[in-house]
Write a structure and sequence with these properties.
Length: about 110
């Protein structure tokens, strides 16, 4: 369901870094998965809350906020290729992109 874990957010931040530093035209955020994103890793948040590990929850939220701002304000445009669900934080990230391309199948499926 492409949940947004700290690892996932690190990959997105690295992609923004690559787009900016690598002279790319822009960034497409999407995947071949059935759903774009079901949002935050709620299992991680629940487990951290039960164990009173608030630093882990804070780090996840900090990384999410950093990722959303980097996507929104990057000098390279981002397009969210949304398919299936885009819930919670997944919807927020899609809306932070400069454009959203909603599709029943991945847009690159028809590229030759």
């Amino acid at each position: 369901m492409n949940i947004l874990s700290t690892d996932t957010l690190e990959v997105l931040l690295a992609a923004v870094d690559e787009a900016e530093a690598g002279g790319r035209t822009g960034l497409v955020i999407g995947s071949d998965a059935e759903h774009f994103s079901a949002g935050a890793d709620l299992a991680f948040i629940l487990d951290a809350a039960r164990g009173r590990r608030w630093d882990g929850v804070e780090e996840l939220l900090r990384r999410f906020h950093e990722c959303a701002l980097r996507i929104r304000y990057s000098p390279r445009p981002a397009v969210a290729a949304v398919r299936g669900l885009a819930l919670g934080g997944g919807c927020e990230l899609a809306l932070d992109a400069g454009a959203v391309r909603a599709a029943a199948s991945p847009p690159w499926a028809s590229w030759s």
